[in-house]
Amino acid sequence: MSKHGFSTKAIHAGQPAEPITGAIMTPVFLTSTYVQEELGKHKGYEYSRVSNPTRTALEMNIAALENGKHGLAFGSGTAAVDAILHLLKPGDHVIMSWNVYGGTYRIAKMIWEEFGLQFDFVDTTNLQNVERVLRPSTKMLFIETPTNPTMEITDLSAAASLAKKHRLISVVDNTFATPYLQQPLDHGFDIVVHSLTKYLNGHSDMLGGLIVTNVDAHNERLRFMQKAVGGILSPFDSWLCLRGTKTLVVRIRQHCESAMRVAQWLHGQKKVKKVYYPGLDDHPQHALAKKQMRAFGGMISFELGSLAVAAAFLKNVRLCALAESLGGVETIITHPATMTHASIPPDQRARIGVTDGLVRISVGIEDVEDILADIENALDTI
């Protein structure tokens, strides 16, 4: 469906009508195995850990949205990140954005370092920082843009060029932006990873992760990881996410529109010390975000000054849900230092701007006036 527009691909890619009944919706194939006609002769499916028609439809759908060749679905976003790190060997060195999701940091520092991988976390908004820590053993550049939670933007084209120059596997966590706002493979990246749990599903009712790549060798190895390790996405969760991607464009447009309103309003509040949103003119990488993203996303972080003030604010929101996660239709407010990024040591959190007073908001698609009223009422209590 490469000739079709993004919204058309979101609704139709990987999802032809079911051939037996003509059902317009992809069925949930709740089966563990498949009857074979004779030895060595089957209909393309042998065992659901290896492949399942519902999961295949989702893998094809997201791959199409990323302008990618191969899609691979896993049981969570962190399972997908873990599979990517399996492309490496003990002694290999990885350079990561210093503001990656806390779960990615946890996998790197608390699991993979014990098995011989080495990591440096640097500010990838300045790619000279990447070049400073390059080693002969460096094999991968793993970036997140916008970063979680301080919304830093890395130049995708420049980062991909640097990775190619040094023969690094280049990876982007594209969860915050989604393929609607940016498509890293088009900038030259090797691999894109998503937490399906977030915007691609959009309804806070499933967990999943997905990898897209145009590199056949990476796909072959990652397919082997699906089969051998088995951290795959279930058929039902695949079906839920397929339902979500059909409305991705209309949801993301509303998330972006409302987030801009909320960010601008927060920017004018005396009790808010700082607002992190790429759509604001004073964001350090605003021009770059405007160049490489279709819009600025639905995620905002803002600084309230201390843990006590943040706690008081979060205690008094009513419409906005105090919860982990993001990207759902409902507005979700999170305290990164004690929730999503609690695995990162305090000194490292301080270095990357994840202070005790930082609050992150995933702006939902409720009436924006109601979101603003809820935030204002909570601010009035501090």
- The shape is globular
N- to C-terminal separation? 52 Å
- The whole-angstrom Rg is 21 Å
Q: What's the architecture of the largest domain, going by CATH?
A: 3-Layer(aba) Sandwich
Strand order of the largest sheet: 1-7-6-5-4-2-3
Instruction: Report the strand count.
Output: 12
Q: Helix content range of the residues, please?
A: 25-40%
CATH level-1 class of the largest domain:
Alpha Beta
Q: Return the CATH topology of the largest domain.
A: Aspartate Aminotransferase, domain 2
CATH superfamily membership of the largest domain: Type I PLP-dependent aspartate aminotransferase-like (Major domain)
Q: Mean of residue pLDDT?
A: 96
Report the major sheet. 7 strands, mixed
In DSSP terms (H or I, runs of 4 or more residues), the helix count works out at: 14
Number of spatially distinct domains: 2
Work out the strand percent: 5-15%
Describe the structure.
The protein is an alpha/beta fold and 382 residues long. The protein has two domains: 6-245, Type I PLP-dependent aspartate aminotransferase-like (Major domain) (Aspartate Aminotransferase, domain 2), CATH 3.40.640.10; 248-380, Aspartate Aminotransferase, domain 1 (Alpha-Beta Complex). The protein is built from 14 helices and twelve strands. The protein has helices at residues 6-12, 53-65, 77-85, 102-110, 128-132, 156-165, 178-181, 216-229, 235-245, 248-267, 286-292, 307-315, 346-352, 368-380; strands at 70-74, 93-97, 118-122, 138-144, 169-173, 191-195, 209-213, 274-276, 299-303, 321-322, 332-334, 358-362. It has a seven-stranded mixed β-sheet, with helices on both faces. α1 (6-12) runs antiparallel to α2 and α2 packs parallel to α9. The longest helix has 20 residues, at 248-267. The chain is globular. The relative contact order is 0.13.
